[in-house]
Amino acid sequence: MFNDQSTTFDFVSFESFFHTEIRILRCMGLSYFNCVFSNKKETEKWWQKITPLIGLIIMSLLISMEIMKIIQVISISITYAAGIFTAMLSGMLCMFKAVRCWTHRKELFDFLQQLKASWESAYSNKFLTKDELDSARYSRSLRNYVMVLVFSLAFSYAYPVYVGIVKHFVYHPEEYFFTFSRIMYPVKYPFKINTFSKYFACLFFEQVSEILAIVYWLCGDILFIQLTTHVSIQCKVLINRLNNFNKDNTSSEEENCQQLINIISQHNQLFLLCKWLQRFFSPIAFFVTLINGLNLCFSLYRVDQQISQGNWSHLIENTIHLVNVFGQTLLYCKQADMLTEKLGEVNNAIYCSNWIQLNKKLKLILLIMMRRAHKEYRFTVYGIITLNLAQFSKIVNTAMSYFTLLRSIG
Q: How far apart are CA 253 and CA 270, in angstroms?
């Protein structure tokens, strides 16, 4: 069927594309996700159901102390308050991603196993081509770039603190004086930090929170990249099957009928996959568009103020945060737009398939499939917001408008 392209590459396992995502989910406490690749039924222990709750409690404490800090400093410095506000918004978004993955872990587990079966079936039947493999590799590379950006952001928060500690103990070990206010996150603790034991206890708490923030930030974003890409690949597989349907004109009527039934079944499965993706990620995408609009505004304002004031020490940290928020918003809109586009190509592939020489019965089957595909699919958030590149432009334009207003007030 796919004569020349399908035999030009060796089999690449589904696990090689998703091992990092599974590792991230396991770091959240969903340890039984290692059964995804073994086709085993998940066996979730009672303690595995509540393990993620510990991390969510830690993150909640951090966010509550950030809110207390905002209340304390907003009347003194709106620029400083804006910096805390951006960190708090990102933390809240990270927590929401983790809650979504935790509460829908069984559905996510089943979805990953279904994608794995589809990938292996497409290869074994020689429906995969080098183009599909390149798309999967591209999404894996994109995921790696996202991880580098997120780790860079975490490093920018932790670097000044640890450098200050090392400098103190290396160059001034005999001096007792130490700036206990040098912490990773701008938070207000309910007690005074005046000893090294309290200081290192708080620093440990913040370091754990930072690791959790990295895991929670990534769990939603890289899953969205990979899942949308692999569902798009299944769309391309279906398009390839339709383009090659009955091309050799040697298949019997019974074989053509069975092939059409298989294609229709795959087409129906694609719609179910897309609907599940939309349902699962709609709450996350809603908060990405809502929170990141504010986050872009305040991050840009923070960077602008630091440049004008010459505060270069925290400029890199806030610039990296701005890049991450901007990239995250673009990522969700671009991937959703790609999925919408690929599913829309199925309708054209049905019409362009070799249906003219089919008998009346097969033509009727194909017509039913075309009618189903004719209904345009759009990746929407609760049917209110269409997630695409046009929506990304609206978010950026709105953020710039509020940035201009905030700048004039500040």
A: 26
Entry pTM: 0.88
Residue 216 has pLDDT above 90, yes or no: yes
Quote the CA–CA distance of 96 and 90 in Å, as a whole number: 10
pLDDT at 5: 46
User: Would you tell me the crossing angle of helices 196-243 and 315-352 to the nearest 10 degrees?
Assistant: 20
Closest to 208 measured CA to CA, from 316, 315, 58: 58
Residue 182 CA to residue 170 CA, distance in Å, equals 17
**pLDDT tens digit string along 247-270?**
655 666 677 777 777 888 888 888
CB 295 within 8 A of CB 318: no
Q: At what angle do helices 315-352 and 389-409 cross, to 10 degrees?
A: 160
